[in-house]
AraC-type DNA-binding protein
Amino acid sequence: MNTPIIRADLVTSSDGPFVAAAELTQRESRETSLHSHPRGQLMGALNGLVSVGVNRQQWVVPAIHAIWIPPHYEHSVRSHGPFSGWSVFIAEDRCAALPAEPRAIRTTSLLREAVHRAAGWPGTALDPQQVRIAEVILDELAASKAESLGLPAPDDARLARITDALAANLADARRLEEWAAWAGLSPRTLSRQFVAQTGMSFAQWRQQARLLRALELVADGVSVTAIALELGYDNISAFIDMFRRATGTTPGRYRVEGVGARGCLRESG
């Protein structure tokens, strides 16, 4: 059974403080079925990794990233093993200036520290100092840039069969023409429908799936060599190059940044 991360009234009602936050550490996996609420929610991982289902996409939330879910958007949440995470719930009337669509963001140290402070509040009226910290959270979210941490799912059953098979074995190096024959499609139809239904080419979708899996494995402390092999890269350099182009840093540096963020929050508590 999931431990509630915060009082129910601070999620379901816009009454009370316009920002309510909480942190949670849990040894077992956590899963929340599809639901929605009137407050917007910003959720992030401190340790481990969380997947969020929203808008027919799976969004991966590795450490130092967060997912913004505007009010009334249906979403589901699943952690991959033990994790520590946080959530901020923002009153609906304060969400007008915030992103109107769900997005993944890379958090700043200022945002993480402000959330950590807010997580210690009792859920009552905010004093002037708390209001200033809450406004920092809103300002940081409003100024954030969208990150590519989502993977859209196709509607067509034949395309879904391909994406399911790829997700089960990302090292599978079959070309588009081979996948089309396997699913009973012409290569042209597969190529056209992939873009129409996911907004990505087949090659882009496969690379994004590999990147998101790599982020999961990096968060779990798996070696770069093992990750490259699992994802089907011929050599480690090719994998590191892909990771750097997608994230702006290397897998090793990305892991260090995530550990540094978690350590900073623990020390400040």
Observations:
- DSSP finds ten helices and eleven strands in the chain.
- Residues 105 and 142 are 10 Å apart (CA to CA).
- Confidence is low (pLDDT under 50) at residues 259-269.
